[in-house]
């Protein structure tokens, strides 16, 4: 089984600050760091590091940031399919990281929203029945819909993380098999039951330090978070989703409690370390997480 992650690719610049500034205030930043980011890229890198074959489809501009992303991605164990668009700036995120571990993220989406339906669907070349399509909320409505319809035609399993929330998601849920949402997103979407009623087979609700729940028509399974010292929560949800999907795919089973247990372990690594992709478990750490958590308890 292979995963096709289609989404945004960005460079993250993280400013560490004592506390969030009030409007109009000028404050000092303690440090500035740079890392790969973008929800699509985050999910693709985490998934690839688990050992699941992964194709990452995204748009970048023909600029220095785009080249840096391509160079850094070449060091990851995935197959990048980057469309280099002219006249478009590669996406970037500015992350404000407060001392208490809370963050605020501002992301551009010029390149992600310019990826056309045709270019995106081309990125699914070779996808077979049972392969995974993984999406988030940074692409245009037309491109997201085209990808979901193409995935259905190919017999793929579709997984959606509706973040950032966009109004165009509403008619797409019947094309989604698995949804990953946090509490705010679940509430804004009318509740997890509303997603199930529209044909979503499994909803994973992430609950921050309280862990996560898998909700299906049969009932609910809760998994506790792994206690850790919070350094930087950026990308925790992306790492969680990628690990849960990969854990189930690598074992050839439907999403289950074990997949969520693996995901809470991987997300705890991410939360306990600074950075985005730099904080994700390495390939060796993923082997340990997936192996160790796979032992009978
Ligand atoms: P983000 O937008 O920051 O990537 P999210 O809102 O999508 O995150 P969360 O529910 O905050 O998702 O976190 C995802 C997972 O990360 C949780 O289910 C949990 O396993 C882990 N996690 C998050 N915060 C903590 C924490 N303080 N301690 C331990 N684990 C955590």
TrEMBL record:
Transmembrane segments: none
Description of activity control: Activated by a monovalent cation that binds near, but not in, the active site. The most likely occupant of the site in vivo is potassium. Ion binding induces a conformational change that may alter substrate affinity.
Active site positions: 238
Metabolic or biological pathway: Carbohydrate metabolism; D-ribose degradation; D-ribose 5-phosphate from beta-D-ribopyranose: step 2/2
Comment on bound cofactor: Requires a divalent cation, most likely magnesium in vivo, as an electrophilic catalyst to aid phosphoryl group transfer. It is the chelate of the metal and the nucleotide that is the actual substrate.
Binding site for substrate: 10-12, 38-42, 238
Domain Carbohydrate kinase PfkB residue range list: 28-282
Residues that hold K(+) according to the record: 232, 234, 270, 273, 275
Keywords: ATP-binding, Carbohydrate metabolism, Cytoplasm, Kinase, Magnesium, Metal-binding, Nucleotide-binding, Potassium, Transferase
Catalytic activity: D-ribose + ATP = D-ribose 5-phosphate + ADP + H(+)
Residues the entry annotates as binding ATP: 182, 206-211, 237-238
A Pfam family per the record: PfkB
Domain of life: Bacteria
Top enzyme class: transferase
Main localization (coarse): cytoplasm
Enzyme Commission number(s) from the entry: 2.7.1.15
Location(s), subcellular: Cytoplasm
Listed GO CC annotations: cytoplasm
GO biological process terms on file: D-ribose catabolic process
InterPro entries, per database record: Carboh/pur_kinase_PfkB_CS (IPR002173), PfkB_dom (IPR011611), Ribo/fructo_kinase (IPR002139), Ribokinase (IPR011877), Ribokinase-like (IPR029056)
Cofactor(s) named in the record: Mg(2+)
Oligomeric and partner information: Homodimer.
Matches recorded under HAMAP family: Ribokinase
Family of this protein: Belongs to the carbohydrate kinase PfkB family. Ribokinase subfamily. Belongs to the carbohydrate kinase pfkB family.
Function: Catalyzes the phosphorylation of ribose at O-5 in a reaction requiring ATP and magnesium. The resulting D-ribose-5-phosphate can then be used either for sythesis of nucleotides, histidine, and tryptophan, or as a component of the pentose phosphate pathway.
Protein's UniProt name: Ribokinase
Species of origin: Ponticoccus litoralis
